[in-house]
Amino acid sequence: MGVMLFFVLSGFLITYLLLWENKHKGKINLPNYLLRRFLRVWPLYFLIVLFGFFLFPKLPYGVETVHEFWRYAMFLSNIDEIYLGLKDSLNFLTATWTVSVEEQFYITWGILIGLFSFRKKATYLIFFSAIIVLSLIFRYYNLHDDRILYYHTFSVMSELAFGGIIGYLAFEGSIIKWFKLMKRWQILLGYAIIALLFTFDTYIFKGPLFVFERFVPGLAFSFMIMEQVFAERSLIKIDKVPYFFKSGELTYGFYMFHCLYMYYWSIFFANNGWTDSIWYFVLYILVNFASTCLTAYLSYHYFERPFLNLKRLFR
């Protein structure tokens, strides 16, 4: 669910920002747009990838990966995971699959808008709707393969397209008034329906209906994002939660490092015989969380931020 929300939110933000730049500057500076994306994504991505392929095998408890570096270098780790993931125990490299899908989207969508600058408003909606339909068709013809359904770009691109739709609708402005006027009971009803769908999704999306297993959450997260951004009677605004923005800065690092710590801490606990109590498991969770948070903090401030500061040169 977190990955789905991540994709919808990314589609929303990137589409809105591209449309804003196109309107206020008359065009999209494609090289600058791509360089800004690269400065945010590439440094930490390649740090983890290079560590996994070349340093990790030489360290204590390290293993050689069967993944293929060239796919990771080209941001095709999601495709590599389909073919080789079951043969490999190096699961912290698996986490990069979402970053590959994101990068594929950033580059493709940026180039499309930058080069063609869709003139008609309806073209955006037609384009994203077509992506959703094609994704559903792709999923239907691959219902027999769980790994394709989970990792393939064509299978998951509907969430990015949903994000693109609400990004366009937010920029165009017509739907904002509807969310602003939503009553609290309507918001509560919307979240109640979403909660039921998420709770019973394994019972609902079975057989041929599994085609819609990502479609419905994509729709739900689209509602949640628009409600949080524009509704005036929200039950709670998540951005009012203390340290929300500060923690948001660390999420990329947290995501990229968490599986690595899970691997090493599991070995440490097993070697010390700390596996026969629920309290050891609770401790395992806590030390994983703490060490990942600390590393994400250090990574952001001392590794990622110097690259992020360069983005000002490409506005």
Notes on the protein architecture:
The chain has helices spanning 2-25, 30-55, 69-73, 77-84, 91-94, 97-116, 121-140, 146-151, 153-172, 176-180, 184-199, 201-204, 215-230, 244-271, 278-308. The protein is mainly alpha-helical. The two termini are 33 Å apart. The longest helix has 31 residues, at 278-308. It has one domain. The model has no long low-confidence stretch (mean pLDDT 92). Helix 7 (121-140) packs antiparallel against helix 9 (153-172) and helix 11 (184-199) packs antiparallel against helix 13 (215-230). Helix content is 74%, strand content 0%.
Low-confidence stretches: none
Please, how many helices?
15
Biggest sheet architecture:
none
Strand content: under 5%
Number of domains: 1
Q: Helix share of residues?
A: over 70%
Cα distance spanning the termini: 33 Å
Structural class: mainly alpha
- The Rg value, from CA coordinates, equals 21 Å
Global mean pLDDT: 92
One letter per element, helices H and strands E, the order comes to: HHHHHHHHHHHHHHH
Name the shape in a single word: globular
Total number of strands = 0
Briefly characterize the structure.
With 315 residues, the chain is an all-alpha fold. It is built from 15 helices and no strands. The protein has one domain (2-234).
Descriptive keywords:
15 helices; 315 residues; mainly alpha; 74% helix; globular
Give the helix/strand layout:
Elements lengths: L1 H24 L4 H26 L13 H5 L3 H8 L6 H4 L2 H20 L4 H20 L5 H6 L1 H20 L3 H5 L3 H16 L1 H4 L10 H16 L13 H28 L6 H31 L7
Helix pairs in contact: 1-6, 1-9, 1-13, 2-6, 2-15, 4-6, 7-9, 9-13, 11-13, 14-15
